[in-house]
Write a structure and sequence with these properties.
With 327 residues, the protein is α+β, with helices and mostly antiparallel strands. Helices cover 32% and strands 27% of the residues. The termini are far apart.
């Protein structure tokens, strides 16, 4: 991708996630997940269509839970070049937002056309994700105790100092017991494992590793961020019922294959952007005031390794453009 075009896209993506966060933030704590999702989707679509690219949505919102979505195969952008894949999670942590809880974010990722992994038949993956310092010491099939010991050594920590983030689900009871038996601590989250993976890969968040089963689309979005940060994710498809196993057999999918972040997005030029909707360890949320709002975002590019944190003040004119009430 042309250097200048790449720079432009990186900064344009922040506008995309800012718009989604600003629209969705009005639904914080109101208990209306679909209304919040629809607001974020509408804002993302509007701004993505102003970016000079020919983008195709490869990872769209809503496949698992029938939520409002940017649909797979949808073309977005206002130019013929560059041709890109787009992965979106307009609200990573919709339930978190609807209940007024921490760590909901708006995310989007872009890479060269044909570079993103697609999983139309199996919607969950078993995952482990870490930052750059521990990227080369994790093994997917190693015992939990072994992985945690290796991660601790790579981070120059005691295992007791490690914090493992995982979704709070009954399916993780055995995993949680293994983590506890190894001596590490656990941070349970109700939703939002894109944010969980990015926190695990980002120094200073207090999270060292993500483990457990979460969404396959979210794995691809998170992998885009990890490609930029230098972290690693190892994962394997996790068919959840007989229908998905039947699709695996019918389409000759290798459900035993261990996938890396590079398998999930293998392009040379990967972009990731996120804006906080509710306050969290990774990003501050949207804060509204009498004449506008503030946001905090992060934008990354794999080719340069650049990671920018963007604090923005949005005045009424911009909020009006996005259809966001300020009163």
């Amino acid at each position: 991708m042309d250097r200048q075009i790449g720079r432009d896209i990186a900064l344009e993506l922040v506008r995309v996630t800012e718009a989604a966060a600003l629209r969705a933030g009005r639904w914080m704590g109101r208990g209306q997940k679909e209304s919040a999702d629809q607001a974020a989707v509408d804002a993302m679509r509007m701004v993505l269509n102003t970016i000079p690219m020919d983008g195709v949505v490869v990872i769209g919102e809503g496949a698992k839970d029938k939520a409002p979505m940017l649909f797979e195969g949808e073309h977005l952008g206002c130019a013929e070049e560059p041709k890109t894949d787009i992965a979106v999670d307009p609200i990573d942590g919709t339930r978190l937002l609807s209940q007024g809880m921490a760590n909901s974010i708006a995310t989007v990722a872009v890479a060269e056309r044909g570079s993103m992994f697609e999983s139309p038949y199996v919607v969950y993956m078993d995952k482990i994700a870490v930052g750059a310092a521990a990227a080369h010491v994790i093994e997917f099939d190693a015992p939990v105790e072994t992985n945690l010991a290796n991660i601790a050594k790579a981070l120059d920590k005691d295992v007791r100092d490690l914090a493992v983030v995982m979704l709070d689900r009954p399916r993780h009871e055995a995993l949680a017991d293994q983590v506890r038996n190894a001596g590490a601590r656990i941070r349970f989250i109700t939703d939002g494992d894109v944010a969980g993976a990015v926190m695990a890969a980002t120094p200073g968040t207090g999270i060292d590793v993500l483990m457990g089963i979460g969404g396959a689309p979210e794995a691809v979005v998170a992998a885009c961020a990890l490609r930029c940060i230098g972290g690693q994710m190892l994962c394997r498809l996790w068919p959840r019922n007989e229908d998905e196993w039947a699709a695996v057999r019918a389409h000759d999918i290798d459900a035993t294959r261990v996938l890396t972040a590079e398998d999930l997005v293998h392009g040379d030029d990967v972009f990731f952007a996120a804006t906080g909707i509710t306050d969290g360890e990774l990003l501050k949320g949207v804060h509204y005031f009498g004449e506008g709002a503030t946001t905090q975002s992060i934008v990354m590019r794999s080719r340069t390794g650049t990671i920018r944190k963007v604090d923005a003040i949005h005045r009424p004119a911009k909020l009006d453009l996005y259809g966001i009430p300020v009163d």
